[in-house]
Amino acid sequence: MQANTQSEPVNFPAIADIAPKIALLKNTFASGKTKPLAWRVEQLKQIKKMVLEQQDNIFAAMQQDLGRCNMESWTAELGGVITEADHAIKHLKKWAKPRKVSTPIVAQPGKSYMLPEPLGTILIIGAWNYPLLLVLSPLIAAISAGNNALIKPSELSPNVSKLVAEMVAQYLDNEAFAVVEGAVEETTELLKHQFDHIIYTGGDVVGKIVMRAAAEFLTPVTLELGGKSPCIVDSSTDLDVTASRIAWSKWMNAGQTCVAPDYILVEEAFAPKLIEAIKNKITEFYSDDAAKSQDYGRIVNERHLARIVSYLEDQNVVHGGKHDAANKFIEPTLVLNPAIDSPLMQQEIFGPILPIVTVKNIEQSIPFVNERAKPLALYVFTKNSDFEQQVLNSTSAGMVCVNDGFMFAANPNLPFGGVGNSGTGAYHGKIGFDNFSHLKTVMKRSFMFDVPLRYPPFTDKKFKLLKKMI
């Protein structure tokens, strides 16, 4: 049997300790300690070392908080952190170089360039569903850009939160990095202080609170908020591979993934085949009884379980639907044609329920998507290149994957971020470096050939020459 998720009581630090931590970080940044590339590379190497040396403890904490198996935790979190750290170390020198641009004739002789400089002290507010990745991935980007950071892990993953605090203290520069554990009170206190950038991952309700607090200081923000990510399945697709990839991306972490397919759009005539194929993959992946599978996770807490189960009320469940509150378990569930105005189709599910909405023809899926808020991710499965281009050109989403689930997250060269209600800003790789940098404009002029054309007194002759030059 899968072990029950459980957590020990957490003793959060005193609110009074927060301000001194922030002051220390700001003083460290002001000293210039975080700017040398050698220091940045050393901290990035320490993150990789930390994850590798502490992986057994990380696995145990994730099992306690989310009921995850080790391989899924590695695939979803640890492996991604290591890949991003390696990528940043490899490319950091190039990213940090001045970026030359051309100089117009009116400013010659001279040269122009953009100089990346760190913003300062970054506040990273993580999420509970990927409690390690969603603090360390932004941290890698922040360090790469030469910043330091205060990390606020999610209190809903208390075992990982505690471990993050211990690991950061053990492996990273304590003058440059700190962790504040806690819940609403601690987060509220943090938002009363001025940071140089805030990155928050979570829901839109708290996202708005973060943005309002940041506005008091005109602090830039990166918000990763999620939403209802559609999955369009065209009948031309490879049915077996499509079913495998949908099942993998939907039920990883028991569906508690911001970029998981939130609902499927499929032609009415093709729907029975797709449903049967997905059912078969659920059984193949998690056996006839997912409650006994070592590879299937658990819901983070009783409140979220009750929320998810409530979405099944009066729905046409065509597979699954069983749940066990004591073990925070909901089996992989398929719902056919839910009412569009039902909570299942109005709220981000963030759980193991997959609605399937049928349309008369697949082209109708495009206006269906466009009538709703822009999603964080959009998926389309098709062998029809014309339809693929139609979807890409006619819809808007933070990220799109054609013929797979959220594999874009495995590529550090691609930005991860939303659009509209699904978020603002992006990170990963060079985009993350730029997100936490200011590209300082620099122009250097020579003292030679100082043409008096621009200086008073102005004449018609000067004006005519000036217009020719610009």
Explain what the structure shows.
- The protein is of the alpha/beta class.
- It folds into two domains: 15-225 and 421-441, 3-Layer(aba) Sandwich (Aldehyde Dehydrogenase, Chain A, domain 1); 230-417, 3-Layer(aba) Sandwich (Aldehyde Dehydrogenase, Chain A, domain 2).
- It has helices at residues 18-30, 37-53, 55-66, 70-95, 133-144, 158-171, 184-190, 204-215, 239-251, 271-286, 302-310, 343-346, 365-370, 385-394, 429-435, 460-469; strands at residues 99-101, 110-118, 121-125, 148-152, 177-179, 197-201, 221-224, 230-233, 263-267, 317-319, 323-324, 329-330, 333-336, 353-359, 377-381, 399-402, 416-417, 423-424, 426-427, 437-445.
- The strands form five sheets. Strands 10-13-14-9-8-15-16 form a seven-stranded mixed sheet, with helices on both faces. A six-stranded mixed sheet has the order 5-4-3-6-7-18, sandwiched between helices.
- α4 (70-95) packs across α15 (429-435).
- The N and C termini lie far apart (75 Å).
CATH architecture of the largest domain: 3-Layer(aba) Sandwich
CATH domain fold name of the largest domain: Aldehyde Dehydrogenase, Chain A, domain 1
Q: Estimate the mean pLDDT confidence.
A: 95
- Rg on CA atoms, Å: 25 Å
The main β sheet shows up as: 7 strands, mixed
The helix count comes to 16
Counting helices, strands and paired strands, the structural category is alpha/beta
N-to-C CA distance: 75 Å
* Lateral arrangement of strands in the main beta sheet: 10-13-14-9-8-15-16
Q: How large a portion of the residues is in β-strands, by DSSP E?
A: 15-25%
